Amino acid sequence: MNEILALTPVLEALTSLLGANNVVLPGEELAKNLQNTSHFEAPNVLGWVKPTIAGQIPDILSVCRQHRVSVYTYSNGLNWGLGSRLPYEDNCILLELSNLNQILEINEQFHYAVVEPGVTQEQLAAEINKRGLKLILNVTGSSPKASVLGNTMERGSGFLDHRINDLKGMEVILADGTVLRSGFWNMEPSHREIQHFPMGMGPDWRGLFSQSNLGIVCKGVINLTPKKEVQKMMWCKVEQDKMPALVEAIAGLYQRHYIHSVTHIGNDKRMKIEHKSVEQGTTWTSMAMIQGSENFVRFLEAEIPAYLEGLCLSMGFLSKEEADYMELGEIFGCHVGIPTDYFVRAMYKSEDAELDPQNMQIDFGQYGMLCCLPVLPAKAEDIKEAIDILESIERDFGIIPAATLNPMNDQCLESVINVYFDRHDPESVKKAHDVNNEMIRRFYSSGFRFYRFDVKTLHSYINPENTHWKLVARLKKALDPDRVLSPGRYEPKAG
Fold first, then answer.
1. What would the 3-class secondary structure string for 198-249 be?
2. How many CB atoms lie within 10 A of CB 149?
3. How far apart are CA 237 and CA 48, in angstroms?
4. Distance CA 217, CA 290 (A)
5. pLDDT by residue (tens digit) across 467-483?
6. Whole-number Å distance between alpha carbons of 413 and 385
7. Alpha helices in 55-186 (DSSP H)
């Protein structure tokens, strides 16, 4: 598999199939597109192909299978901090799906959209707004140019919920070219609505294709959230030693259904606030959405402060206009389905730099970032231990991680912890990588586990003898015996 001698014939065959404009040969353009915010060294890539319709994908896979070359698929390649477009192994073909960018359907009554993998957050949000629909896209805090479907399949987190919970259906192309549709979508055509019951009949296999390399998802049915009468953003600022108690209080608010979004709790570094030492009082800023009828929101504005009594340095409930006044309007917008570059810009501001507003593609910028993504139980003692780990990193290395600890519900938090560095400074690059690796190790050795890994770290935390990964290997052998689809991605290494 993946023999370097196959370079010329496989690229000739792919060029014949797709046309020269849709095949990028080794050279300057290909090398540029392997740059990434994490500053990971790129494996050897034979070429890069960009189909214009999903119907070309089975033929691409057939060509690569014939030439014993593997294919690594990505949507828009904005998997920042985790590897962006990088494959897991050498001598492969990159398959980019950004040209598959059609919004195929938006259904207001059953509140979903059917999209191809190249559809961006910005594109879908704009189309919803253009049609005047009272629907909200669950956006992430990454780039407006990020793929809706790509991020969903990677189990990214949105402002309203975990993105995988938005997935109501999918169309998948297997390694042998077979096309599958989930639920009732895969059965005989019907003139009735079929996406109202995503599970269909029989095994529900949608989960097999999230964080996996078992197929290429070329269409997705994405849930949209109906807008409520009134929406306000709850925000508060707490001292670091009050964080564990705050998280448990927020868990109680979820139990009462008082909070209607993910709660984002960011430290000073994340929120681009000048950092103060622990002795001076490090703070965290929390934001979440409350919504409903005017009377219900008024009730929440009276009730919630009682549950947070004694925890907050300050708090409030902001309308869109009030959020704009406090320079939090873009974060408010994320809660109502408007994607933003706010957090990308904040990374640069935290390094006392400005990002060119004409070029938000930070894979090619001066500053880079790495990601540590542990899952935390919503328990005070666990939150305290997580903060202790962050403090130990600052104390031992002199680097302050930019962290958000995000309660998803009353049970767990998904964390996004970044280390920023100057990509033009080799010493800064090395130190950042050493720090991030050590931070992951400390969280893991403390018993925490991770919901996503970068392309360079993943295999250090996969035990091929574990029964879960043995099953993954069996599924891979059954569905992709030639290992043409993304070998090494969310699976044990071969051999």
1. CCCCCCCCHHHHCCCCCCEEEEEEEECEECCCEEEEEEEEEEHHHHHHHHHH
2. 29
3. 47
4. 34
5. 999 999 999 999 999 99
6. 14
7. 57-66, 121-130, 148-153
pLDDT at 7 over 70: no
* 277 vs 158: CA distance, rounded Å: 30
- Average predicted confidence (pLDDT) for the chain: 92
Same domain, 258 and 218: no
Q: How many CA atoms lie within 13 A of 452 on its CB side?
A: 25
Domain that holds residue 244: 230-450
pLDDT, tens only, 113-156 = 999 999 999 999 999 999 999 999 999 988 999 999 999 999 99
- Name, in order, each residue with C-beta under 8 angstroms of 295's C-beta and a sequence gap of 6 or more: none
Nearest to 408 by CA among 81, 111, 163: 163
Residue 460 belongs to some domain of the structure: no
Q: Do 264 and 332 meet the contact criterion of CB atoms below 8 Å apart?
A: no
- Gyration radius (Cα) of the chain, Å: 23
Point out which residues pair with 106 in neighbouring strands: 113
**Among the listed residues 211, 150, 217, the one whose alpha carbon sits nearest the alpha carbon of residue 179:** 217
CA distance to 265, 283, 373, per residue, from 239 (Å) = 12, 4, 23
Do 213 and 309 share a structural domain? no
Which residues, in sequence order, are CB contacts of 477 under 8 Å at separation 6+? none
Type of residue found at 234: M
Residue count of the chain, please give it: 495
* Residue-level pLDDT at 485: 97
Question: What CATH number has the domain bearing residue 130?
Answer: 3.30.465.10
45 forms bridges with which residues in the sheet? 92
Question: What is the pLDDT confidence band of residue 365, given thresholds at 50, 70 and 90?
Answer: confident
- What is d(CA 291, CA 326) in angstroms, rounded to the nearest whole number? 20
User: Do 453 and 443 contact (CB within 8 A), yes or no?
Assistant: no
What total number of domains does the chain contain?
3
